[in-house]
Fold this protein.
Amino acid sequence: MSGSHLSRRDFMKAATGAVGGVITAALGIPVIGFLIAPALREDKAGAPIAVGKLEDIPVGKFHPFSFTITKVNGWERTASNYGGFILRNSEAPDDILILSSRCTHLSCTVNWNESANAFLCPCHDAKFGPEGQVLDGPPPEPLGHFEYSVDDQGVLTIVPVELKSEA
Amino acid sequence: MWQKLYTWLDERLGLGDMYANLLDRPEPKGNWWNTLGSASLFLFILQGATGIFLTVYYTPSPDHAYDSITYIMNDVAFGWLIRGIHHWGASLMVLVVFIHMVRVFVTASYKYPRELTWLIGVGLLLLTLGMGFTGYLLPWHQMAYWATTVGTQIAGSVPFLGEFILKALRGGPDLSALTLQRFFSAHIWMLPALLAGLIGVHLYLIIRHGESHFPDEED
């Protein structure tokens, strides 16, 4: 004991600092988790969605379709609309191209323009070709393609991959 | 390196002077009862911090208030902890402020030249109770709704002015979305701003006059 030179005053200072540090950490570390919790939640890929019967979809032209997905965000249900274009190249049930209408630049909705023979985005003049490839403008990548399947009754079903890329 | 940085800051901010004048003040002989003012200040800061974090998720709308609190409690990491601290800290703060006041009264610390410190302290007690009253409504469950119905009804029993006070508190004749919104506004902006300001004056007066010693035979 006689070897210790810690004064009462210094001990009190150190103890106050230590207790303050423990309280700050005990609150501060959980708070980080509290603030970033929604960012760590896994986003689901989404269940397959039937978009129509093959016999109702014309061959050789872009057929628009849309679907709504309701997600629970916190204490509220949020319904979001998604859409795209179906192009049947021929009568064969596996000769189909399904493009997302969501512009890969900043998520505006593109429209098919017959005279331009391209998908045009109204927001920043993006231009995509008939296969979704970028022709002009700021988009970093082509339009998204939907995976699809056709069952015995001719019902076309897609997997809404767009959900994955959504925050 | 740290020494240099400290010297640079100290020359400009006067950290050493601040420490000597704010924290290293001479104190009369005291005991644990003398720490309750600091405990109240600590609880105020704790309530402020946890309250700010709760507003990240809480929604002051009749449609979503209760759901957002359920979300905080069940789905947000450590939401139960942050809200738990805020919930229990509120009761504890009223208790600690009140015992602090009793101590000041019993040791006659409110006398010259500290009357103003006492009066401001009374204001701080009322504001603390106001924080409790407005915060109680925010979960918007049955207990909150009816407690506020009764509380505003009591305020409405004032002669002549009663009906006006009741309508001013509720934002209309009924407990509604307007009530929830104005209680929220009072709870997170108006009352805390007043509290923080008055706490500043309270602390200034304590540092200016120093702490009172216990009364002895000569007093």
Q: What stands out?
A: The domain at 32-209 of chain B is CATH 1.20.810.10 (Cytochrome Bc1 Complex; Chain C).
